[in-house]
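Morning!

This is the sequence you dropped in the shared folder:
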Amino acid sequence: MIEISPLRPDDRARWEVLARGYKAFYETELADAEYERTWQRLLQAEDVFGSAARLDGQVVGIAHYLFHANPWTAGSCYLQDLFVDEAARGQGAARALIEHVAQVARERGVERLYWHTKQDNARARILYDKVASFRGFISYVRPLT
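The structure's back. Tokens below.
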């Protein structure tokens, strides 16, 4: 059975393994200091939030999310990062993390949960097509630094 909870201080080592796996999948390199900075922000849970999926007590998945204003609704929740250990995939961790974030968002009164993925992330999109609607948007990113 999958257990979902906020990230805990003792999740640090396992979180970093999964966070690095996520960044590797998206071909993004970060300095060690960036992982530490992000970890501290997640533990503070002020502007970004993190949850863990546990299977038999072991952290097998992570989700990072944030809330922001929306001019048309009561706000939105952006699921920034979602990653499950390859060995644990297909056991419900990703779905449980999405449902957890959706519940947290409902409790905060926001009207929309959304996320992005690569168009060729076929395995994840099978799940995403079951729990959300693909509306055909294309994402552009313009680095400012």
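Headline: The two ends are 43 Å apart (CA to CA).

More detail when I'm at my desk.
O.
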